[in-house]
Amino acid sequence: MDMRKIVVVVEDVEAARTAFEWALHNLLRYGDLITLLHVFPKRSRSKNKLRLSRLKGFQLALSFKDICSSDFPNTKMEIIVTEGDQEGDRIVAVVREIGASALVVGLHDRSFLYKLAMAHNNIASSLNCRVLAIKSKGSSSPDTSSITDSSTNMDFSQIDLAGLHVLEPPLQKIRYRICPSPSAIIWRSRSSSRRKNSSREEAQFRLIRGS
User: Fold this and answer.
1) What is the mean pLDDT of residues 46-60?
2) Which of 129, 179, 190, 192 is deepest in the core (most CB within 10 A)?
């Protein structure tokens, strides 16, 4: 079985953690490689601030790794922390560079996927892989009515966890014999017992008279 490379976008939002947990339980196969990718924004040219941003991003990725280590200890994993923009171009570049087969993203109102959809007509083609956007319960989506039709090709698989529910198992049927007339059977059983009692009393009466 070929090893698949799955990239999970690491963000400090609950939607990203939910998406990662979903990928572990529903997408991960034995032998796959998970890449935890965190992109911090360009805000300063100061080396100290860049180093601090990189350190925070790495610590955030380690917290994601801890989620995996508890339930999937043998999972192959790597961490990439890099600087980039908020439009997702850096994520596209990294995903294409490592040859990922799937990209898992936690969908929220500030998700880069919406900005990427406005910049590219085909997201999956730009990333050259399958895109899974996991929408957790309570998360909202921005209004895309102002986006032109030519750039609203949301060609990623959006999975709404809030709409998923587990069906309750049906009640187990208990097999039993259906009687055509239960009341008749009960009446007969009582009648038969009365007949036995009356026959015994009659035999005892005859025995007394004979004696």
Assistant:
1) 92
2) 129
